[in-house]
Amino acid sequence: MSASAAVIDSYDAVLFDLDGVIYLGPVAVAGAAEGIAELRGRGTKIGFVTNNAARPPVAVADHLVELGIRATAADVVTSAQAAAHLLINTFGAGARILAVGGEGVTVALSEVGLVPVHSADDHPVAVIQGYGVDLKWQELNEAAVAIQRGAHWVATNIDPTRPTDRGLVPGNGAAVAAVQMAVQAEPEVAGKPYRPLLDDTVSRLGAYHPLFVGDRLDTDIAGAVNAGLDSMLVLSGSHRAEQLFSATPGERPTYVGEDLHALLRPPLDLSQSDGEFRCGAATASAAEGTLIIHRNGATEVEAIWATAHAAWWGADHGLVFDVRDALAQLNR
Ligand SMILES: [Mg+2]
Fold first, then answer.
1. What's the rounded Cα separation, in Å, for the pair 245 and 236?
2. Which of 222, 253, 255 is CA-nearest to residue 9?
3. How far is the CA of 297 from the centre of ligand 1 (A)?
4. What is the pLDDT of residues 101-124, one digit of tens each?
5. CA of 237 to the centre of ligand 1 (A)
6. Where do runs of H (alpha helix) occur along 206-299?
7. For residue 66, with 0-12 CB atoms within 10 Å meaning exposed, 13-18 middle and 19 or more buried, which class applies?
8. How much of the chain exceeds pLDDT 70, in percent?
């Protein structure tokens, strides 16, 4: 492969996380629509992946279309669908499933031929628990009773929080934890960072060598690592240099980019000699107590990538250092 080949030239498909990658709440990430259109023009297969179980795929696709991105419901895979897929594989069509959550959960059950019920007295074989904006305590009661009677328990996702424009609020993981305080059981989890959601998306796309693009290390990049996929962290959403420098071995991306347009450019060229990492003109190395960074006029993302590798190398060699000091050096 020539030095000028784009990142995407090594892959036949891209799985995109949505919030923080394609949009920030109601608004598109700048240039996202043009970037997706260019990828489609190259013949890249595109899948949109979301841990958010509240909205059915058609609602997610409509949102993408409003933002100027071509998408149909078939291009979107939700954690509720991945949970329903686990349940149909285990229990078969017609099985009665206690549904906790909103429309996204009941639609996902119905579309595979499972039967949503709403009381533990309806003899469900399993409980599916996903986010619903109108969740009632009574639904948690029914889930706990059904689980104690032996029903299998699947959570769409266990994100502890949900970002809003007014701050963080409890996510589905908080409601799962509420049930867990009453029962002696652990849920099976469909969403990132667990494999089912990403495995389902790869198989729906018929992808041979897919790349996953996300904005969080703990769900997106860890999920890609768990699913055996290469990954790119984009800095357009939740996680930035500070989190990247502290990434554990199970949450380190293959690539980093400011936003999804990095897919259309060559990968950053990283080299190492004697513990010194170089990216563009930037160099970084780890010593006890500190990271030594020289930006040398490199772009910010080049300096971040060199520093991330130095930080990971240092952490893996037992060195401890102050990430805030590294951030201050980057901004100098
Ligand atoms: Mg995200």
1. 16
2. 255
3. 30
4. 999 999 999 999 999 999 999 999
5. 7
6. 222-227, 241-245
7. exposed
8. 99
Catalytic residues, by residue number, are 17, 19
Q: Where are the alpha helices (DSSP H) in the chain?
A: 32-41, 57-66, 79-91, 103-111, 137-148, 172-180, 195-205, 222-227, 241-245, 300-316, 323-330
Domains of the chain: 7-51+194-264 (3.40.50.1000), 79-188 (3.40.50.1000), 270-330 (no CATH)
- Residue 3 has what pLDDT? 56
**For residue 125, what pLDDT is reported?**
98
Q: How far is the CA of 98 from the centre of ligand 1 (A)?
A: 28
Tell me if the pTM is above 0.85: yes
Q: Ligand 1 centroid vs 217 CA: distance in angstroms?
A: 10
- Cα 227 to averaged position of ligand 1 atoms, centre (Å): 17
Which residue carries 């959960």 as its tokens? 105
The CA distance from 287 to 281, in Å, is: 20
Whether the CB-CB separation of 155 and 132 falls below 8 Å is answered with: no
